[in-house]
Records
---
Amino acid sequence: QTYLFQYTFAVTPAHIKRLYKRFQALDKGNKGYLSPQDFGSVKELATNPIGDRIIGAFFSQGQETVDFHSFVRILAHFRPLDKNRAKRPDSPEPINSRISKLRFAFQLYDQDNDGKISRDELLQVLRTMLEMQVTEEQLESIADRTIQEADLDGDNAISFDEFRKSLEKVNIEHKMSSRFLH
Amino acid sequence: MDDSISCKCNWTSKYLVCLVIFLSGALWSSRDVLSNAAGATTKAPPVNSPAWTQVSPKPQTQPLPVFTINYPRIQVPFEITLWILLASFAKIGFNMYHKITIWIPESCLLISVGLVVGGIMYAVHGMPPAVLTSNVFFLYMLPPIVLDSSYFMPTRPFFENVGTVLWFAVVGTLWNSLGIGVSLYGVCQIEALGLKDINLQENLLFASIISAVDPVAVLAVFEDISINEQLYIVVFGECLFNDAVTVALYNILSFVATMPEVETVDVFLGMARFVVVGLGGLFFGFLFGFAAAFTTRFTAHVREIEPFFVFMFSYLAYLVAELFSLSSIMAIVTCALTMKYYVEENVAQRSCTTIRHVVKMLGTMSETLIFFFLGVATITTDHEWNWGYILFTLLFAFVWRALGVFVLTQIINPFRTIPFNFKDQFGLAYGGLRGAICFALVFLLPQNITCRNLFITATIVVILFTVFIQGISIRPLVECMKVRRTNRKLGTINVEIHKRLMEHTIAGIEDICGQWSHYYWKDKFKKFNDRVLRKILIRDNRAESSIVALYKKLELQNALELLGPAPSDLSAAPSLMDLQTKRNFPASDLRNMHELLSKNMYKIRQRTVEYTKKSALPNDSKVREILIRRHISIRHSFRVGSFPRTGVSKRHRFLSLPPRKNMESRSPPSRPSYTSENLLRAPIIFRHGTWIPVATLDLLILCSSIVLSAAELNNTIKQIIFRSRLFSTLFGFVRSASYTLPPGLASLDNAEGPGLEDKQSWKMTLHPCSGSRGTDLELEPLSATSSVSQLQRFSSRQERPLQNRYHQPERREHELGQQTSREPIAEGLWGQPQRDSWTAHRYSRSRDEHRPGGGNLPPSAPTGWAQEPLIQKGGGSQNHLNRRPHWRPHNPHGPQSPGQVD
């Protein structure tokens, strides 16, 4: 199984060991899977404005549990990209590639999974991130502006392509990599 | 001299006193201090100094003098005070015009002023003040600086990079010392320079002096251009720890340098000593750090001396380490790092602030003085100039630093998560300025060193060269080379938002991974800390106490802040408000938006740069935000529970005004039934000092009168007006609201002390039916003792005429005393707590949506509304108020609402 992990998620056995420890620590009552409540017990996440969304990202549609396999798979997104790794032409896109990191971020916005960040979705995120100091109007003008900026096809929403283009200059590999998973 | 002795005997006197007395020692004793060891001076009994004896020989026969001048008596402290003032004024001067300090580091400017002053002194009376010529520097001047740096060390990044920091600090310094020393020795063998008489030991000693980096100026620059955190923390930590290394090395070498012959055994003994010195310092640091933490456990009833323990214990650590000739810098650094965490949880918020302020103040003062004196000393000391030696020193100092950084990074890089790239290495190497430590150490050199004066000159040249040339050029160079930064450049708004989202995501992911277990021992330590240390050292140790305690502290702080001066982050208000009106986005607005985003987004813990400003106190806005968030979430839950929100709000600026239709069609106001009146008059007394949640307002609306402490009042009153409108829609007889404030409330604003918010309480009464259609909010100060009886009196007052009689004089008084009372109130209550009013505003809006007919409101205010802005100090906040008419309190000079006429 370790081999499987290594192959698919490009994580090392040491990672897996460490993550498994953490998984067990989070798993209250040794169920063998994690529930949203388990994540909720992480204190720091409570103060994270998008904590709920991050937790939500671990659970695929309609599911209430996440097993260790999926847990690692999600976390593997945040592995720093290894430039030296020999690229095998036949290997699929690695899970920690720029594009999958971006997709992960995109899905944090796109809660209804329609492939677009609508104005409302953007507003929701903005509201949680800037809640207290800003009026609704300001929020809305920021959201409008954001969409205006990124929206290329004029559908008043940001598609994944547009999202990617707007972040072209950002060092995603660095931004979306956790040192922990190095 | 004896001043410093007495200070040593009585170590409990404060640092500031020590500083002053040190300087007295410095000014007094150019002659013999150097030869005196610290131990020798302590033995001498305190005797009258010449200055004191000069006072007495007045003949007894003279008549009683009517007017005398006794300058010698006060001379020493007087001159010291003047020196400090002069340096401080210089500092003020530089900061008046901000552009200077951007391009030229402050240390350069201070040295320049010092040079000028030194020149004047040299020209005037030829006898320079003996500054920094004694090891008193190490007893009184260095501790504040080190304490400052270590107390404000960003803990988390430091421990994440601790390996690299120590690697550079210890190995790097050794490398520099050895390299410079040996190569200078090589240079000395050149016949032409005529320096044959400097032997290897002396060269090494000199090299150890010269290898201490002190990049104050660089840190300021790095902070300013927000360089990447890793580089910053390594430079920061390196300069802190290599001071310790250098001093230890210096002590060993100065001993070795005086030895006639050095054997192999001595080399090993020296190494062993080096280790002992370091570890010993560490030990005493821990010891006194824990002692300080443990002591503050019991200071709950003596809050006023709490900050004292921090200073005394860290100073004690320093002195005791010095006593055993251990690394005192190491001791004080460890002490500060150890106790900070526990002490800050134990002490009161106010003490915590005091500690930070005093630490920062003393540190800054010492640093300022040192650079200032450096300038003075440059002019006034005897120099021995040798071109060859000095130029080679400069060259080697630079070359070995650069080499060292490159070689050491090559070794450490494989162990780092984010390796240093070439540009980082350049920043690290070029940031190796020399500073205060070199300066002090070189003056400490024993007189029997042959080339003492040459060493002094060479050191001063190196310091001046690095501080001026490198210090000034590092900003353009780093900017030009585009060294990695923590990016704060203006991108598109998309980038800004998405990046922040990503940061939150990573923070969340790391939380899920348990980021503190990054290092195994760190995890272990945390457990140990939770199980043992916290129980012993922290008074109030409960489960999750860190968070709960933080909240408690923050709540208190926040309550105090509501009374205090406006926090700085409100400066953003005017620009934010400008934003609202325009719907198409000109370029300037884009900037505003960026500002808005970058300023207001909730900052996550780890990814935000945790720089501690060298020049300013760190602000705790971040923690405050946590608190605010919590309050918001409380509000949120409240809102969700009792007034479920159905739709996204539409844009209505004046939603909280009742619809005109309602107003016009309203039947003449009828008095509410007696039963409801009784309900409304039921008093509720709140415990003083507790934060009144939003629910207070609802209680107020239900019960109509509450006793509040001033802080609670301040928070609550802002929300009361629009809530009363909700009330009006429920009962249908209130049209507008106003409040009257007793003149006494004016003092609320000025009060900072604990007295007001703790002892004074306020009775707050909502009069739903005073007048025909107005809601009056009545405030009356209650003394703590009589509050209950007063309240009963109030609650029994149910007759309207009585109420009105009660109202009239008060209002008149208010009008008369408006110059004194209204202005501060307006500012204190309405001007500053922006965030609360924002949320409150939104809150009111969301409520009003559920009112029948609340959706379509004319944007104009009804006649009863006071239209002119309140008297405000800042134009910005006035603007701010203008846009929120429903927020404005009733203005006594404005058009009276019908409610107040009768």
---
Amino acid sequence: MEQGPAGGTGAATAAAAAAAAGTGGLLLPLSETEQQRYFELFSRCCPPPEAAAGGSSVGELFRASQLPPDTLHQITEVCGAKRVGYFGPAQFYIALKLIAAAQSGFPVRIESIKNELPLPRFMALKNDTEVRYGTPAELHGVKLQVPYATLEKNSYKRTDEKDKQEPKSPPMSPICSPPASPSTYQRIPLSYGYGKARSGLEQQHGAPYEVRHSTHQQDGPSSGNYGAKSALTCSTPNRSLSVEREQQDSSTHYSDDPWRITEEQRDYYVNQFRSLQPDLNAFISGSVAKNFFTKSKLPIPELSHIWELSDVDCDGALTLPEFCAAFHLVVARKNGYQLPETLPETLLPEYLQAASLKPMRDCALFDSYSEPLPGSQQTRDFSRAEKSSAEEVPDNSALLQDGKKDNKQALKVSTTLKTIPKEFQHLTVKTAAQESNALKARPRSRSYSSTSIEDAMKKGEEPPTPPPRPQKSHSRASSLDLNKIFQQNTQALRSGWLPPPPPALPPRPSVSQTEQPSEVDLHPQMNRPSSQAEENSSAKKEVVLAQPPSKPARRKLRTEAQGLETPELSPTINVTASKAHLPVQKQSSKQKRAIQTAIRKNKEANAVLARLNSELQQQLKEVHKERIALETQLEQLRPVTVL
Amino acid sequence: QNYPLYIRSVPTENELKFHYTVHTSLDVVDEKISAMGKALVDQRELYLGLLYPTEDYKVYGYVTNSKVKFVMVVDSSNTALRDNEIRSMFRKLHNSYTDIMCNPFYNPGDRIHSRAFDNMVNSMMQQVC
């Protein structure tokens, strides 16, 4: 009955014939496309030249078809695998055909597969062949777009509207949904059991979905929302709503990436952010965020991990993009996705910031700028810090603060203006909360100052120049390292190493939409160095040094702002300049002038800060010398401890 | 009380011995802390000389302002490890620790389960070995 797969499409036809024989004389007509597809699927499950598909992979594939388990059992039985004990090609093809039939709503019978059927759809296949297998396009972007209310059990209805990727499979009738079809979760093969479990959870489907649209400001409904988000059964209102949504989202050509936040989701997250923190450009403190995310009923270690992933600058607070990323991760986790080890690219704050600014068509630009995320952020940062100590990049500006801000701004960019006083309150609160030691406080205050500054600087870092992602560095960490290195100058290891006054590290406020923020920001910049004396400068210096080894892409932001160009950056600058034209052209010339004046002011501020920096460096050297002297005295005085 | 928040050893044989060493060295660290008095903010270094007669390895210590102690045991045969490298490693540890502290879901005093911290420590140890 079974003919061993001879490989090639011959096997398909052979299997077809075998299928015919296997089912007791039933001739199973397989169209050409069907044959090809089945063969692909079969070879996936069972790499040739084995004769039978592996049970586990077949099981996975069947589960990916989103059919209820009893249907799958039925199919297995009908196709004869149970009888022969394994999935030969014949059984496999029959099973696939039966799956197609079941997905179309036909009963699982041999007779049903005689008809012309669309190709079976498998949702949760991991590779890109999903498309070929007819998984609906909406999958991911669409899928997650309705995170809470619609763990959609009904994929078919969606394919009606959004079947652009599957020309072959005709749109499935939304009516004949197979019993309890599970939600469509795409990439990660969800065990069917999980789908069932989810449906078993709280079932406030319609209500939370509607509530979601309203601006829920109170915690009551929002918490109820939150709880309800976890699991949903499909209901018609949900379905219809989701369909509308999908139709909307189909316009935004989201690739099927579960980690990409759709517009809808983003709006939802922003609303949630607003409910926690009215000012969109301020932070959500750690405790507030903790309470909020705890409502999601995820286990604490997972929430902790989500926090670690999303709080890229590790300041204990979430900005809007960080919050969106965290929220998105929570949603994904609740929907069954495993948390990644590192933050996906689409969830990076810079990406989110920039994405919120520019239309999706500019995503390509992001990709060109972005660099793949290596392992953990920290390892990269430290390697960068160490590299920076080795290489003295001359093109650092004297504006250490600006450099730091630039770093942070690269992380978080938004078009909206910041309320400067708010940032400073945030800054002072945070610094007070930290260790009193100047040494330790240095890095922390710096990080906060940086975040506040960069928030203040978040002026329309607009679309053309998405800040390069890898900048989500531990500038704090790197600067701390170099700080300590300076501390160790007591041994005069590096006393001779004075980094040359870094050439202009253009400040972050490169292209600002308005002037006011730039002015106000300049003031804080100047205030801060004077207040924190040499400690800051030395710290910032290292920050700046840490940055050069990082991507030139970031420099292109700054250089564009300031017109400072180094040879290596000129090509990138051209790119950014050209890109800057796009949005600029859209704005009035008045804004251009405003931008230019802001640029000029920034340049002046840069010069001032550069001078200040050099002075502070001198002071730092002197202080180091004094410290060395004191330490030697102390060593002499300290009683020797004998082991 | 000095209960460990995080302990990791590479390679993993003789792990118990390393644990024991770390524990005994806590006494020395405490002694140093009390000796320093108020100037305890510096990063300190446990003597290079904690050498057992049979094995030779060095134990380094580091204390943060919040009295969190980092103890590192390294093999003496690894002579390439210089002082500033040790210091940089402690700095990294400290930074990662502060990152963990930032996490509102972390209660100070809990054991550390952060994956980021683990990755950092692993990478650091790989560098040394």
